[in-house]
């Protein structure tokens, strides 16, 4: 006997399919591009399919913000607690989060642009900033920095990375990798060893095949 299709599959498409289409539209055209009918055309589905999974556009917006948090804040916080034998290695773990694309820079840019239009999204980005800065500050405190110094260093790290994203700065990979030892020294006061830099470079190159995310 043929089994019925799962409730999130088939002619209705899938919830993830709608979310992926909304993600792409947000990246390409900003929040004004995330509208039900254009998404339906993109997917080759009817509007009815959308309402089956989300009920209303606001539910899709909430799902997009949850996706953003999962693709940005969660990886960064995770990187700040990743195992490291030295402070330099701990800092390189954080920088790798940005350079390998674990931190979704295009989505971050799109959501920050969205935040300029809607106060509640602005509040979510501010809350994320607080959480991310706290994670970086706590990492530095664990490596022996006093609280005020750790706070200033955390802000230097974070605002530099968000600046790369907000300005949509572009550096070729060789240039960016050449600057990493100096960034680590500025951010932590420690100079990474050649072995640590070699491992970091290999990690970045292996993950992105020459196409790291900006930032």
What would you call the structural class?
mainly alpha
Range of helix content? over 70%
Please compute the radius of gyration using only Cα atoms.
20 Å
Runs in which pLDDT lies below 50 for 5 or more consecutive residues are 1-10, 210-215
| Count of discrete domains | 2
Written as H for each helix and E for each strand, in order along the chain, the element string is: HHHHHHHHHHH
**Main sheet overview:** none
Distance between the termini: 53 Å
Provide mean pLDDT, rounded: 91
**What is the strand content?**
under 5%
Overall geometric form: elongated
How many beta-strand elements? 0
How are the SSEs ordered, and which strands pair?
Elements: H1 15-29, H2 36-43, H3 47-53, H4 57-71, H5 73-80, H6 87-99, H7 105-115, H8 119-142, H9 147-166, H10 173-188, H11 194-208
Characterise this structure:
- The chain is mainly alpha-helical.
- It has two domains: 10-63, Orthogonal Bundle (Arc Repressor Mutant, subunit A); 72-208.
- It has eleven helices and no strands.
- It has helices at 15-29, 36-43, 47-53, 57-71, 73-80, 87-99, 105-115, 119-142, 147-166, 173-188, 194-208.
- α5 runs parallel beside α8 (119-142) and α6 (87-99) runs antiparallel to α10.
- The longest helix has 24 residues, at 119-142.
